[in-house]
Amino acid sequence: MRHSLPRRPPVLPIVIGVVLAVVAGVGAVRAVWVSSTSSNAAPSGRGEERADRSRPRGDLRCDGVPLSAPRELRGIWITTVENIDWPSRPGLPDEQIKSEYLGWLDLAGKRNLNAVFVHVRPSGDALWPSKFAPWSEWITGVRGKAPGFDLMRWMIDETHARGLEFHAWFNPYRGSQPAPSGAGSDINALAPDHPLRKHPEWAVVYPAAGTSGSRLHFNPGIPAAREFVEDSMLEAVKNYDIDGVHFDDFFYQYPVGKQEYPDGAAYALYGNGKSRADWRRDNVNKLVQEMHDKIRKLKPWVKFGISPFGIWRNDRTDPSGSPTRGLQSYDEIYADTRLWVQREWLDYIVPQLYWNIGFDVADYAKLLPWWAAVVKDTDVQLWIGQADYRVGQAGAWSDAGELDRQLALNRKYPQVTGSVHFSAKSMRSDALGSVSKYAASFYSTPALPPIMAQLPADIPAPPRVSLSGTSLTWKGKGTNSAVYRVQGDKANLLAVRRGGDGSLTVPDAAGTYCVTALDRSWNESTPAR
């Protein structure tokens, strides 16, 4: 996949509402076309520090001074489809697959991140031994062929060992990738045990065979297909210690020209008198609500979130919409993202705000407060999808400070409790030094994930702590442990470790240190020293 803007039309001064949705992955460019580059309108100053609604307790102190730890989600998407991020190519030896993944965890540690979002179901396949789906071709190079170890379990164990959350990223309805790298529209080119070969009646080809980008989809309008897709994802929730279930914005395919999505037969059977558009939206709503409810019943501590296209509706169409003029996810891909927040079917939402500040068709500085208002007074947390992949492109993105300004603007809105960056390879390449710039400004110290009040809370007892020279050790019952160091009038977060027991070489034997225990939902015990 190439993350590049489409060519501009040669004559029309503005073409609005057109989006390029290519290949798979959160970072596919959903770029609104314009004929001239909009100027940047950078916010002035950094603004006040975000109000910390995610730390409900203010009584946590170490040696008489308050604990000080940023509470924000900091993540990267690690894309497997087409080997965009990892593995670097299919068919690598198992040890190289492992080594490359550990390299991404090293990057997360270097940048003080606390979560990774790993693509584990790109196209009706799986990165775990599944009774619902074949092994992904992006790992071994052969559709349906497994590596020599339980990849998912190993990834989760290694991720947790670094104190990071593991969010399993699924594309629910995709059945194949376009040819020639994927099976395209040819069911017979899928792995022999692919579910669409067993149930061709569930398959939809869109765009049409012979059209660039043609691929297979599970039909969202067939209840049995929807239930199967849900079960295939819940299998991973049941069998693995994941921290989150994560979707991006691929439910109904982005429109291609004037081609109609070929679901007429399903609509005739299941439409129940609704308009085609309302029926499609209802199909997606059912998937979201049912996944929320089933995850809660199965493992109530597992978070559920979606990263949608950044525009719900434009205010010219709907007065409740955003001050934008781009593609509307409600109307074009039948994703009623605002409703999902209002009904609290999600724990977090990560709108892909992949446009620059001042962009006239979809201005980051105008979309951000719109989304903040949507989540206000709900239990749904707002994390922002940041477009690291666009840095270095022409226009506003040739400025290394664009993302730095966007993160500064995020801090002005207390509803924003995190960011996820697309994608891992863009963070590693650090185009124009942009990552180093924003990391120095905003990610210079470790951070704890924000607390979600709707998740189970079981605050552990404080751990038992001992310090011998520069060797700090502790024993406790937490899912994670946090180490703090007293510096002046506060105790700053020094490190996060997985598990209740741990050790750390501290920078100064004469310093004062405290350790807290944290539960699965990152609720924190009183400190011990």
UniProtKB/TrEMBL annotation:
<keyword id="KW-0812">Transmembrane</keyword>
<dbReference type="GO" id="GO:0016787">
    <property type="term" value="F:hydrolase activity"/>
</dbReference>
<feature type="transmembrane region" description="Helical">
    <location>
        <begin position="12"/>
        <end position="33"/>
    </location>
</feature>
<keyword id="KW-0472">Membrane</keyword>
<dbReference type="Pfam" id="PF02638">
    <property type="entry name" value="GHL10"/>
</dbReference>
<dbReference type="InterPro" id="IPR003790">
    <property type="entry name" value="GHL10"/>
</dbReference>
<dbReference type="InterPro" id="IPR052177">
    <property type="entry name" value="Divisome_Glycosyl_Hydrolase"/>
</dbReference>
<protein>
    <submittedName>
        <fullName>Glycoside hydrolase family 10 protein</fullName>
    </submittedName>
</protein>
<feature type="domain" description="Glycosyl hydrolase-like 10">
    <location>
        <begin position="72"/>
        <end position="394"/>
    </location>
</feature>
<feature type="compositionally biased region" description="Basic and acidic residues">
    <location>
        <begin position="46"/>
        <end position="61"/>
    </location>
</feature>
<keyword id="KW-1133">Transmembrane helix</keyword>
<keyword id="KW-0378">Hydrolase</keyword>
<feature type="region of interest" description="Disordered">
    <location>
        <begin position="38"/>
        <end position="61"/>
    </location>
</feature>
<keyword id="KW-0732">Signal</keyword>
<dbReference type="InterPro" id="IPR017853">
    <property type="entry name" value="GH"/>
</dbReference>
